[in-house]
Amino acid sequence: MQEPESSEPAFEPEATRRDADVTESSRANRGWWDRNADEYQIEHGTFLGDDRFVWGPEGLDEVEAELLGPPEELKGKSVLEIGAGAAQCARWLTAQGARPVALDLSHRQLQHALRIGGSFPLVCADAGALPFADASFDLACSAYGALPFVADPVLVLKEVRRVLRPGGRFVFSVTHPIRWAFPDEPGPEGLTVSSSYFDRTPYVEQDDQGRAVYVEHHRTLGDRVRDIVAGGFRLVDLVEPEWPAWNSSEWGGWSPLRGNLIPGTAVFVCERD
């Protein structure tokens, strides 16, 4: 695996709230994940494991959740993992007898997937322009991949629907929308509302010339539901994982303190008719 050209940007980005379109968001987040993939895998690799399927920082495991269906029914199914990172979920799917494809915007993240190993294809591409033929997959999944970072989630949902076969299921997790009203802090300071839940202005980190280097987009819970319907899916379940007693770890703004009081993750289970 090649060494990254630079593990850290040469500037301290400025955090702001402003508009960021599809092109700017994609460019910024590809660069951010390429620069920060190494640190991310070092910090969270143990929690994620090499071959676990975890839906979020709470630790909800697909082994127990079965949101894609019973494990015994995954055998032989073609599955697209979107925003795969180091492809931990795809590795778990392979162990169940599924045939996954791991897709990510970041080349560096996929280099970590190569480092860990696996017999499934790795694809570097944008979720808004999936390089697959119509009706190529039985299932699709995304654990905190793509959807929080795209300016046009309906475009992504329509692309996922296009590559799914009729009756296919798409399950994705994102930061729970309520978290946008609170500071992104794991301690007591993260328990007081500091901004409007209804403010959809993206969170942007930008360089000294005003170019975005990281973008995250906010959608309310109602927005997410309407996006799913506009994308051609039927919402069949919405899971808000509770913080388990065994999980004592902090992950950014996620912590036992906050997790016991407010939801941190929303998992949407969608089906294509």
From TrEMBL:
Residues 1-30 are annotated as: Disordered. Keywords: Methyltransferase, Transferase. Residues 1-13 have a biased composition (Low complexity). Pfam families: Methyltransf_11. The keyword ATP-binding does not apply. Residues 80-172 form the Methyltransferase type domain. GO terms for molecular function: S-adenosylmethionine-dependent methyltransferase activity. The keyword Transferase applies. One of its GO terms (biological process) is methylation. InterPro entries: Methyltransf_11 (IPR013216), Methyltransf_Superfamily (IPR050508), SAM-dependent_MTases_sf (IPR029063). This is Class I SAM-dependent methyltransferase. It comes from the Bacteria. The lineage of its organism: Bacteria, Bacillati, Actinomycetota, Actinomycetes, Kitasatosporales.
